[in-house]
Write a structure and sequence with these properties.
Elements: E1 10-14, H1 17-31, E2 39-43, H2 46-51, H3 55-67, E3 69-72, H4 80-85, H5 95-103, E4 106-111, E5 126-133, E6 142-146, E7 149-156, E8 162-170, E9 174-178, H6 183-200, E10 203-208, H7 216-239, E11 243-247, H8 248-257, E12 260-266, H9 268-282, E13 288-293, E14 299-303, H10 309-316, H11 326-343, H12 346-364, E15 367-368, H13 370-373, E16 382-383, H14 386-402
Parallel strand pairs: 1-2, 1-3, 3-14, 5-12, 10-11, 10-12, 15-16
Antiparallel strand pairs: 4-5, 4-13, 6-9, 7-8, 13-14
Helix pairs in contact: 1-10, 1-14, 3-5, 6-7, 11-12, 12-14
């Protein structure tokens, strides 16, 4: 059987540790035998980021703007421990944060549901999609470790006029952080959420803590409300869906009591935390899709989890691991499907859908990785290593392709 051809490259961003191992296995077993992969490759593994002083991350972001679609492996965001482990020149910022800032997009994350695994929250009957604002806030914050002294927030306008506001008069050492966001990015976030709700015909919830951060979070609330009233209220009423704002703590309580089936829009940090909570409650961090959508129509697909460090250390010792590759597979299928849609390549889009069906079919027959086995409710599961599981998906895909 001849391989499916691609007209336009995907931006391929390799990553770190166990997910880097899975990345190559997925390409070798599930992609390259069926598709003549056409990618522009960027190694975002921590050693290469350190070698290039993180320039390669910025180059990858520019490539996504050029080609429109990227797919990214999970990467390490270094801390003090990683500084010594990898002998880094600098504690480089999150590559995800860098790419999201460059694209100024919104991250939509939704759980991957399979028959036989029920959510930990028993009343959840439909997926909850997290819409995460992917710009600014704590991810682009400036931090200082300070001694005794006075901390101030200072803003200088274009004419040189300064505005000062006292933060705290430190009687001992402490920490200070400054973060920001932009009206234009918040407005893009709002429109992305409203458009996604209309496209999927789901209610949209939005939550902040404007009772505490009256100006910062209050600005988010006001911009969402203004755009909704002026541009989207009539469209929502026609579609039979609703927009609802509430405080973040109230939203958490409502989400737990809900039946699911809606979009929950969150600021950057809230979305980071809540997407992990939602995906875990639906089954596993490795069972969630994640796509960054920019205002100018660029897309970056990734797995919504980390690099699975402990499994990687065991892998280095020659031990067998049972690491779930589903989120990484779905990052690839999402990117291939979008590339196919944009290029009018129906074969590529159909292949992506077939690979997703094959992946879920294997699980629903009772064959899975260890993380899902503890959640399985349809008899005794057949637990495989990650390599064996990927091969089982290939066998299922080959059966479907030959049918």
């Amino acid at each position: 059987m001849s391989k499916i051809q691609m007209q336009t490259p995907l931006v391929e961003m390799d990553g770190d540790e166990m997910t880097r191992v899975l990345w190559q296995q997925i390409k070798d077993e599930l992609l390259s035998p069926f598709v003549e992969l056409k990618t522009e490759y960027y190694d975002l593994g921590l050693p290469e980021r350190d070698k290039t002083r993180d320039q390669i991350t910025h180059d990858a972001a520019r490539a996504i703007k050029k080609y429109g679609v990227g797919v990214k492996c999970a990467t390490i965001t270094p801390n003090v421990q990683r500084m010594s482990e990898y002998n880094l020149h600098e504690m480089w910022k999150s590559p995800n944060g860098t790419i999201r800032a460059a694209l100024d997009g919104t991250v939509f994350r939704a759980p991957i549901l399979v028959a036989g695994i029920k959510p930990a929250v028993k009343n959840w009957c439909a997926p909850i999609t997290i819409a995460r604002h992917a710009y600014g806030d704590v991810y682009k914050a400036t931090e200082l470790r300070v001694p005794q002294g006075k901390a101030e927030l200072v803003f200088t306008d274009r004419e040189g006029k300064k505005v000062r506001s006292a933060i705290y008069d430190f009687e001992c050492g402490g920490v200070v952080t400054g973060q920001y966001n932009k009206d234009s990015s918040i407005a893009s976030f709002a429109r992305a959420c409203f458009n996604y709700a209309l496209a999927t015909k789901q209610d949209l919830w939005f939550s902040t803590k404007d009772t505490i951060a009256k100006i910062y979070d209050g600005t988010f609330k006001e911009i969402f409300a203004k755009i909704f009233e002026e541009e989207y209220r009539a469209k929502f009423e026609e579609a039979g869906i609703t927009y609802f704002y509430t405080l973040i703590d109230d939203a958490v309580a409502r989400v737990i009591r809900s039946r699911g089936g809606f979009i929950w829009a969150c600021k950057n940090y809230d979305g980071d935390v809540m997407s992990d909570m939602v995906s875990t409650a639906f089954g596993s961090l490795a069972m969630m899709t994640s796509v960054l959508v920019s205002p100018d129509g660029n897309y970056e697909y990734e797995a919504a989890h980390g690099t699975v460090t402990q499994h990687y250390y065991r892998h280095l010792k020659g031990e067998t691991t049972s690491t779930n590759p589903i989120a990484t597979i779905f990052a690839w299928t999402g990117a291939l499907a979008k590339r196919g849609d944009l290029d009018g390549n129906a074969q590529l889009t159909a292949f992506a859908a077939a690979l997703e069906r094959a992946s879920l079919a294997v699980i629903e027959r009772g064959t899975m990785t260890k993380d899902l086995a503890a959640l399985w409710e349809n008899g005794t599961p057949n637990v495989l290593s990650c390599t064996e599981f990927i091969r089982a998906i290939r066998e299922e895909l080959e059966r479907e392709q030959s049918a």
